[in-house]
Amino acid sequence: MPTTLTKPAPKDPQARLAMDGKVARIDKVTGDDENEHHQVGTTVLEILEENLAEKCGYKSAYAFMKVELKTPPSTLMMYSKVAKSFPEATAAKYGMTRLHKFLTLAKLLNTESVPADPGEFELLVPNKKAELNAKKFKDCSVSEVQAAIDVQKQPVAEALPPEAVRLQASAQAEVDRICGESSSATIKASLHGAQVQFTLSRVPAEKLAEVSKAIAALAPAPD
Question: Is 0.90 surpassed by the pTM of this model?
């Protein structure tokens, strides 16, 4: 609910008129329709970009939201971020919360550009055994997107031994040779206690036997 604080005297009367129209537009939304939430986000974005809160005498947009709007400022800011990055149709398809979490994940991954529809974007989602599986965003729940975020926030793993680094480079060269350098197939080394483990990802089924044979030939002989 808006607070009982009074509105400050506007610095710009025309800005106050514009703000009143936008507040009325936001107040019309009372349900959980994702399209309407996106429209609220678009309106909040207009308020931010036009600096209307400051022109209406507020110290910040946050102060304005606390006084004049029913929805918590944190939710309104979330709506505005999603509206800035995605069209309304995408919001209706996936929901504002899931898309907001996708933006958080994209930032952690240093994604250069966010697609208008991130449905095909692959996330690394841990299963019940803490194993990471690739899963498309469109098939992920909100909790799974959050789990993918948590994975990216984990501390950087302990440095690999030099011999493991060299073996990973050689193995990746073999993967590229067999699958093609334009392929997304990878082999990654990681430490699990004192043991170095290698994980193959995105290797085409028809290339798997050949890749496995090539990598096995690189492996050091057991002690």
Answer: no
